[in-house]
Design brief:
By secondary structure, the protein is an alpha+beta fold. The protein has two helices and ten strands, in the order H-H-E-E-E-E-E-E-E-E-E-E. The radius of gyration is 19 Å and the shape is elongated.
Amino acid sequence: MMATVGIVAVLMAIAVFGLSPRYADLEGAHQELVNSIRETRLRATVKGAHFRLVPLETSYEIQRLQDADGDGLWDVDGSARVQDVELPPGVKIAAASMGGLDAVVEFNTRGVMVEPTGGAAEVVQLTLTDHESRTRVVEVWPSGQVQNESILGVTALGALP
């Protein structure tokens, strides 16, 4: 009888801590961000246009771009709908490149990440943070590869405290 009560108590503790709605919000936002990056890259290759993911504070936008004047710089396509993805309440997003600057994720028609100014792309780190300062980090490499990681306590690009 004592063993049964003990097992039930352990299972209930796992259920209570494992299903915290706020933690689930962060995890869900993390997985949705990874999926959005992968989808953005796929759309760039399939549609033959540049696509850009722009992190805002509590959301991010996915924009289709065009090079209407042929100067090699891609601007937002005014005829295409901008997709706005809202993060769950209490979850914020920030982005930084290797140089420590604010960053966006832009893919060219081959699915390779490029800088909006036309320069060589750097690794971009997108950090999701909830109201309890828990973080989830996603890195996007110039090759277009998405590194889906959960790193706690990230203070700078790739640096642990």
